[in-house]
Write a structure and sequence with these properties.
heterodimer; A: mainly alpha; B: alpha+beta; Arc Repressor Mutant, subunit A; three-stranded antiparallel beta sheet; 5 helices; 3 strands
């Protein structure tokens, strides 16, 4: 027996750990792309706002609507990309994409996110938009921390970083745009790259 | 040798090793999830979960979801520590062989 069997044991342990909590590894490439979308979107918004007649953002008017539209597009494209890449990966590895662990992960991720998103829309309606960047970061961070209970550790740390950035953003609302870029753009790319090297590349 | 002492007899089986691996990275797993992942029969899985339960490495929660009975398995602190030790011992053994 000995060496060979033990090695096989270890390989099997690793394989089962990966397969049973596979939803962590969806994030590699889709994380990077989500970050890229966020950066492109932010650049577009920045360009449009600074080149507008006023040079800053006010709540009504077409420029604000364009910014909201860009925001929704970033979210939409990120979700579509994540679903597409995850499905492809699951098919390649012969795994089911929609099972209890993925469902649990998704529900726990969506609850804080939808509550946060709705809350932001409500306060925007009430003309209170100074904190919306901070709130986006905080609720997104909480959603990640909450979802991390249902997969292995790593997205928790991304969640903590987003929450921290959100709180800093709440203190310095003037830097909201740049902290948003840092949180949704740069952090996603860093996280996605780390995950890609850790799990995806074999 | 102390290395061999750390090899845990309770884990000396593919399926038990598998059950523990899954429970290490998941908060809990139910019977059917384990069955599907490990590709074993009901009876086989039940006897191995029982062995782990007797060693107090996992706990069992029985409940009903609607009318269907549902059994969840959760790794105990003791089980997690024992399993980690076991893996470390395996790795040490392999290293020493080379």
């Amino acid at each position: 027996m000995e060496s060979k069997d033990y090695l096989k044991d270890l390989t099997e342990i690793k394989d089962l750990m990966n397969r049973s909590s596979r939803f962590i590894s969806l994030s590699g490439l889709s994380g990077i792309l989500a970050g890229v979308y966020a950066l492109i979107g932010a650049a577009m918004a920045y360009y449009i706002v600074t080149n507008s007649a006023r040079g800053y953002l006010i709540l009504d008017g077409i420029i604000f609507n364009i910014c909201v539209f860009i925001l929704f597009m970033i979210a939409f494209l990120s979700v579509v990309t994540a679903i597409f890449l995850t499905t492809r990966k699951a098919k390649k590895n012969n795994e089911k994409i929609w099972d209890k662990s993925s469902r649990r992960l998704l529900i726990n991720f969506l609850v804080p996110l939808i509550v946060g998103g709705t809350y932001i829309l409500i306060i925007l309606e009430q003309q209170k938009y100074g904190q919306s960047g901070a709130l986006m970061l905080i609720f997104y961070g909480l959603a990640l921390v909450n979802a991390s209970k249902y997969s292995i550790g790593d997205i928790r740390y991304l969640g903590y970083v987003e929450i921290l950035l959100g709180l800093i953003c709440a203190l310095f609302p003037g830097y909201g745009f740049w902290l948003w870029v840092l949180g949704f753009g740069v952090m996603h790319i860093i996280y996605g790259t780390l995950m890609y090297y850790k799990y995806d590349r074999k | 040798m102390s290395l061999i002492e750390n090899i845990n007899k309770v884990f000396d089986h593919r399926i038990r090793l598998g059950i523990m691996s899954i429970l290490m990275v998941n908060e809990y797993a139910d019977f059917n999830t384990l069955k599907e992942l490990l590709d074993v029969t009901d009876g086989n899985l039940a006897s191995h979960t029982k062995a782990l339960e007797q060693a107090e490495y996992i706990t069992v929660e029985k409940q009903f979801i609607g009318k269907k009975p549902n059994t969840r398995y959760i790794a105990t602190k003791l089980g997690q520590v024992a399993f980690q030790k076991h893996i470390d011992a395996l790795e040490q053994l392999i290293k020493n062989k080379d």
